Amino acid sequence: EFDVETVQDIIPSTLPKIEINKSKIITAKDLLDKSHALFVYNNRLNRTLTTMNNENKNLTEKKFPTTDAKNALTGALKGIPKSFLLKIQEKQAEKAKELMTRSVGQIDEDRMMNRLPDIARRIRTYFVQLQRNVMP
């Protein structure tokens, strides 16, 4: 049972102040700089951000025939509800964000987990070949 009388009193403190003149992200470069500062510990994301920066600097404007591609895409997606397409796009963006922000430990753990079914199948085959009564 929880004894309320033995709990220490709460120490009052001031509320955090709202920063009205806080810097806002205006351009993509600002966004990349802020994300670089946040995710410096993740080498993969860091390399991606620097590569994107370099590509954006070296990128020359090229014109491609986009009308044919747009017509083909709209024809293929004809009859599919917009809300369904938006849900799919949101899920894809969420997965991409999750993959970009994973740590090296999480990536290694996923790699090991993906190998588990193959290892289990090989162990089962080994015991079946030895005709042991261990496996069903």
From TrEMBL:
Pfam families in the record: CDT1_C (PF16679)
One GO term (biological process): regulation of DNA-templated DNA replication initiation
A Gene Ontology cellular-component term: nucleus
Annotated ranges, domain DNA replication factor Cdt1 C-terminal: 83-136
Keywords, in A-Z order: Cell cycle
GO molecular function terms listed in the Swiss-Prot or TrEMBL record: DNA binding; DNA polymerase binding
Domain of life: Eukaryota
Similarity-based family: Belongs to the Cdt1 family.
Name of protein: DNA replication factor Cdt1
Lineage, highest ranks first: Eukaryota, Metazoa, Ecdysozoa, Arthropoda, Hexapoda
Gene assigned in the entry: cdt1_3
